[in-house]
Structures are given as structure tokens and as C-alpha cells.
Amino acid sequence: MNSNIKYLPGYLQTHEKGLLKKRTDQLYFLLESCELCARKCRVNRIEGELGYCKSGKELKISSYGPHFGEEQPLVGPKEGGLLMANIPGISKSGGSGTIFLTGCNLLCVFCQNYNISHLGEGHSISSEKLAEIMLHLQDSGCHNINFVTPTHFTPQILKSLQIAVASGLRLPIVWNCGGYENPEIITQLQGIVDIYMPDFKFGNSSPATKFCDAPDYFEQCSEAVKEMHRQVGDLKMTEEGIAIRGLLIRHLVMPNDLAGSEKILKFIASEISTYSYVNIMSQYRPQSEAYQYSGLNRCPTGEEYLQVIQLARKLGLSRGFQYKHLNRL
Ligand code: SF4
Predict the structure, then answer these.
(1) What distances in angstroms separate CA 54 from CA 72, 75, 102, 147, 245, one per listed residue?
(2) CA 311 to CA 265: how far, in whole Å?
(3) How many angstroms does the Cα of residue 48 sit away from the middle of ligand 1?
């Protein structure tokens, strides 16, 4: 039994009311003219047609396991700067139970998981097997089930969730998505997803077009994030600092301000909440096809990163990033 279960996730009630099955069926129906993400390819995935994400009707994953490199509220508590993994008698860091889905609806040219997202590396698995994996992660002591890049497999995931819930799954679901969502699909996840963790990648259309072929990225992402926040609110944690419900936004600082950080942070501060948990990330590295694009072929400088942090502070944001070093600017 996983002693890290501190909170009963929303999907239990949704399942009891029969709504989990109803939503799953509705979303499966959409596979016949797929609009699961903002691309709205309208291909018939049941009949074998493939859209932008190159994913059919079969669920495909590349890997799964406890992950200790995610945000601390997902991974579990630290003490003295060290993760408290599996130390008997004290509160444990059980890690985030990540499941990496194969394929992606966004396909950024700088993707760090190119083989999985662009090249389709992974294995087809049944709904029953995915449910088994969720239960295995729960039994391993993970704090949550973290679906990485789930959007294009939403109905298949919900079908597995039904099976896992009936067999005793009690961990919060993390929806770890790229932000190019169909807001109407996000509304279908109300009462199912406890923790939304979208990327917020681009503020401006030109880089979103060039690097992700998604000119309306900001508009779609901002609507989706609003809906996510409406459902679950700001990120809430247990006394031990473990996330149980809410919104956690990731923003990757890019070289030459290609991400348009100011527009994104202003939106979050004014339209979402200044109490938003925003992980402002510095780890952009040119990978995959990024070397072919001028402006993308270097890491952001320390100064570029600190300027974004300073801006976030000016806007009243304070959760999810370190800012003690600001006085060095
Ligand atoms: S999930 Fe998105 S990219 Fe994939 S087929 Fe459906 S609408 Fe197209």
C-alpha cells in the first residue's frame, strides 16, 4: 500500500457518477474526426488515418517509472537539499509516476525527446496494461500519475483510468501537456485531472509558427490555461509540500527572447493569478533540428534568464522559481 496517498482525487466521484465512462465514450467518438488538440486535423483515426501527431487508435508509450527530476511538489519533499528517497521512518520522496506517451501534437524543432515525439519510438499497449502500470507506480510509492504529452491519447488514457480506478488507483493525475490544447477538450477533463501542468512556450505567433507550426499557439494555450485554472485553481500542496491539486505552469526561457516571456508572464499575472506556480526554466539547449535555425542555436545566457525572473517578480509572481540571486543583477 502506498503511504503517500494523502488526498482523494476528483476522478473517484466522477467515476462513481458514471461520468468517467460517459466522457471516455464521447472522446473516443471524436477519434473518428479528430479534434483532440488545437490542430483539429479531423482525420478518422479509427479507420487508420493519421493527423499531425502521427498517432492512430492504439495507445503507445515509450517508458514509465518513478521520476525524481520533475518539480519538487510532484517528486516529494527534500531535506537538507537531498531528496528523501526511501528512507524508512521519515516522510519519503516517492517520485512522480511518469508515463511517457509516444508521439506529440506539437512537434517542436528543438524537442528534447525527438525519438519519442517525432520518430514514434515506443510500444503499443492495451488499456489493461496501462492500468496495470498506473497501479504499479502507485504501489512503488509515487505521489502521482504523471502523463507526459497525453493530449493525442486522451480517450485511451481515460479508458485505462476507468480500469485502474476500479482496481484501487487513488493517486492524483498530472496532465503534463505542451499547451497547444483544444480548450473544449480540457472542459471534458473536469473532475478527472487533479493537476494540470501545461507548458506555456510562446507569446508570439512568428516563433510559434517557425518552430512548431502553430501560429495560434498563444491564443489556444491561454484559453486552455484559463479553463484549467477555472477547474482546479492555484497549486495546492500538503503540509509536506506534495502537490495534490491545481495548476503548475512551465515556461522555458529561450535565447533572444524567442519565447516572448513578457507577454506570457503578464497574461499569467493578470488573467490567471499572481499566486500561480510558474516553473521558469533555464535548461533550453539546442537539440534535434534546432541547429538549423538562427537564434535557436545557442543556450540562453544567465542574464537573459535572470531578466525573466526579475520581470516575473515585478509582476507579482513568486511561486515556482528561485529569485534570491536577483540582487546580483
Ligand atoms: S490529436 Fe491533434 S494532431 Fe493528432 S490527429 Fe488529433 S487533432 Fe490532429
Answers:
(1) 33, 31, 10, 18, 31
(2) 8
(3) 13
The Cα angle at residue 154 between residues 151 and 160, in degrees rounded to 5:
140
The CB of 42 under 6 Å from ligand 1? The reply is no
pLDDT tens digits, residue range 280-300? Answer: 999 999 988 888 888 899 999
Ligand 1 atom with least separation from CA of 152: 1
Phi, psi (5° rounding) for residue 249?
-100, 140
Q: Please, which contacts does 237-240 make with residues 24 or more away whose CB atoms are closer than 8 Å?
A: 237/73, 238/6, 238/7, 240/6, 240/76, 240/77, 240/91
Q: pLDDT tens-digit profile of 59-111? A: 999 999 999 999 999 998 765 444 444 444 444 688 999 999 999 999 999 99
Distance between CA atoms of residues 310 and 249, nearest Å:
17
Place of cell 492504439: 58
Q: Within 10 A of 47 (CB to CB), how many other CB atoms are there?
A: 10
CATH of domain 59-80+90-328: 3.20.20.70
CB–CB of 203/251 below 8 Å? Answer: no
Question: From the CB of 53, is ligand 1 less than 6 Å away?
Answer: yes
Q: What angle do CA 284, 252, 68 make, to 5 degrees?
A: 80
**Does the beta carbon of 39 lie inside 6 Å of ligand 1?**
yes
Cα(52) to ligand 1 centroid in Å equals 6
C-beta of 171 in contact with ligand 1 (< 6 A): no
Q: 0.85 cut: is pTM over it?
A: yes
The domain ranges of the chain are 59-80+90-328
Ligand 1 atom, smallest distance to 43 CA: 5
Closest ligand 1 atom to 45 CA: 5
Note whether 77 and 93 are within 8 A (CB). yes
Beta strands 243-252 and 82-83: pairing type? unpaired
Alpha carbons 95 and 100: distance in angstroms, whole number: 15
- For residue 51, give the ligand 1 atom closest to its CA: 5
